[in-house]
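for the writeup, i need someone to sanity check this before i put it in the appendix. the sequnce is what the collaborator sent (i think, or maybe the updated version? ugh). structure was predicted straight from it, no edits. if anything looks off just tell me and ill rerun, i have time this weekend
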Amino acid sequence: MIALAVLNGIIALVSTGFAIVAAVRPSSLSHETTPTAGERFYAWMYAIRGVPLGLLVCVVPFVATGLVSALVLITAAVVQIGDAAIGAHRREVRMTVAPALAGVIHVITAIAVIN
């Protein structure tokens, strides 16, 4: 369980890092040369939700078990699967595979914290 919690934490921190990068440099994820005001606005909206959720998902398997912990992890998995769907729609392999893998790890960790 410890190894799974650590892997889950690393994935959550990487995801949190991408949320911070999106807020600081929106064009790094959208690949636009000059981000618009709307793009910057949505990058900040993404970050203001992504950073706290990512940090929570990183910590929760170490401090709690049971249903509440599993619900946090399942919520994060749903978010990651949504990100993967956006990546698939854009036909970007890295934006599809990485969040899909993160979602699977979150689900596996959720199952482990219930048991």
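The mean pLDDT is 93. The chain is about 85% helix and 0% strand.
thx in advance!!
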